[in-house]
Fold this protein.
Amino acid sequence: MSRFPLPGAESVYHGHEGVRRYWRAWLAAWEFIDAPIERLVDAREHVVTLFGPSTARGKRSGADVQIGPWAQVWTLRDGRVVRMRMYPDHPNALQAAGLPE
């Protein structure tokens, strides 16, 4: 999350419990989220998930919001995820994975 700062979010989450804590907090804020994947990119030890504009509705406010486009870079070792980083845009995520925009 250090590359995609969100209010109230920690910048780094560790381990299974950290991932659970992040997703519980993030999903608890929304009545619904629609985050369509535009493309998955194989970058050797990384997989880049490129999301199109996402829409969500706040649970408390009922406000509709649009997020993105945004991206994730997943790092894999021995078939396991060892890191996931979120990016507020596609070009930075592709660059982080060693790919051209």
